[in-house]
Amino acid sequence: MAQFSINRTTTPTADAARKAALADPGFGRYYVDHMAVVDYIGGDGWQEPRIVPTTEWALHPASAVLHYGQEIFEGMKAYRHDDNSIWLFRPERNAARFVNSARRMGMAVLPEDIFLASVEELVKLEHEWVPVSENEQSLYLRPFMIASEPYLGVREANTYRYAVIATPAGPYYSEPVKLWITPNYTRAAPGGTGTAKCGGNYAASLIATEEAYANGCGQVLWLDGAERKWVEECGTMNIMFVTADGELLTPQLGTILPGVTRESILKLAADHDLKPVERMISIDEVLDGVGNGQIAEVFACGTAAVVTPITGFNSPDRGPQEVGDGTPGRKTREIRQHLVDIQYGRAEDKHGWMRRVL
Ligand SMILES: *Cc1c(COP(=O)(O)O)cnc(C)c1O
After folding, report:
1. Which atom number of ligand 1 is nearest to the Cα of residue 197?
2. Is residue 348 part of a domain?
3. What are the pLDDT digits (tens) for 79-118?
4. Is 121 in the same domain as 218?
5. Among 62, 144, 301, 317, which is 20 to 30 Å from 172 by CA?
6. What is the whole-number distance in angstroms between the Cα of residue 303 and the centre of ligand 1?
7. Is the shortest distance between the CB of 302 and ligand 1 below 6 Å?
8. Could you give the C-alpha distances from 43 to 46, 79, 108, 211, in angstroms and in order?
9. Which Gene3D superfamilies does the UniProt record give (predicted)?
């Protein structure tokens, strides 16, 4: 496993200040004292992995990431169990996805063992920043990589910087949301970057989220870029449908982001008497099904919120529509609780998903 050298900050957060921060961490408000960094130099490869104080970076204004957007990221959490041990959930899936994202964006490929070590070593060092398990608090980890080479020509960069930063995440309330079916924008197209977890996908999606807010919705439901007919995913989460026939239905992989939460919930479906089905689902099938009860429940899933109930849709064509009685469904709540219980060590980890860090 890759060895990270540690250069400790001379100004660590005082215990009292950290306790105050953890009493009300919000999200993205506080950052732990250290970050993991590994640089890549073309021709020379990955440089010494190191953990250093969290500080600003000096970047040359010509750095490729600032102009052509070569950037990828991951999102994962460290969970404290009731016995004070600290765990990650399927981190090897994030490491593998990071490789795929890098390949798609023409970036240096970070070996998976370095990815795993970076996350584990940072969590070990900053273990005091992992909140207590009450109310689903966690330490959110953000591994990411940028093209750091100063060069204005358009080509794959020759130098990259990989880093992991971490921010405590406070109590999570998974508020139900309604989805806006935008007539104006798409997120991904065949051959595009839909399967890469890259910043550019988000930059291109923000305008549609504003449109969703303006139409009384909390998120966008993306349709496919070719026909604008097939359901893909929500803004930052994959989407699932519980049918009246006992299926757990979700769009197949292809242009969507292959979520770790999605993959995991499909594996839990049988425990909830649901049959997992991955296939193309048209927006008409969804809206008709919601109307006639064939689709009983809808939810979105991703690391941040785990499972978010979807209680309605709105679109210019068909107007507002509620799912069921407009409140979160029973299977949705059960599946969410099951997954959260595995992550916090309260339910049996039959699939061997949890990885102990400390
Ligand atoms: C990260 C992400 C998801 C969810 O993936 P998880 O691995 O479950 O967190 C879904 N859609 C998009 C666009 C994402 O960026």
Report:
1. 15
2. no
3. 999 999 999 999 999 999 999 999 999 999 999 999 999 9
4. no
5. 144
6. 7
7. yes
8. 10, 38, 11, 45
9. 3.30.470.10, D-amino Acid Aminotransferase, subunit A, domain 2
Identify the domain boundary among 169, 199, 219: 169
Q: How far is the CA of 115 from the centre of ligand 1 (A)?
A: 18
Q: What are the CA-CA distances from residue 237 to residues 32, 250, 255, 323 (Å)?
A: 26, 12, 13, 18
Could you tell me the residue range of the domain that residue 61 belongs to? 5-169
260: helix, coil or strand? helix
* Predicted pLDDT at 2: 78
- 195 Cβ below 6 A of ligand 1: no
What pLDDT was estimated at residue 1? Answer: 58
192 and 143 in one domain? no
Q: Are 156 and 236 in a shared domain?
A: no
Question: Do residues 227 and 196 lie in contact, with contact meaning Cβ atoms separated by under 8 Å?
Answer: no
Question: How wide is the angle at C-alpha 46 spanned by C-alphas 35 and 7, nearest 5°?
Answer: 30
pLDDT at 277 over 90: yes
- Note the pLDDT of residue 87: 98
On whether residue 47 sits in a domain, the answer given is yes
DSSP strand pairing (50-53 vs 34-41): antiparallel
Ligand 1 site, residue 197, Cβ cutoff 6 A: yes
The ligand 1 atom nearest the CA atom of 303? 9
Domain-ending residue, one of 130, 147, 169: 169
CA distance 175 to 172: 9
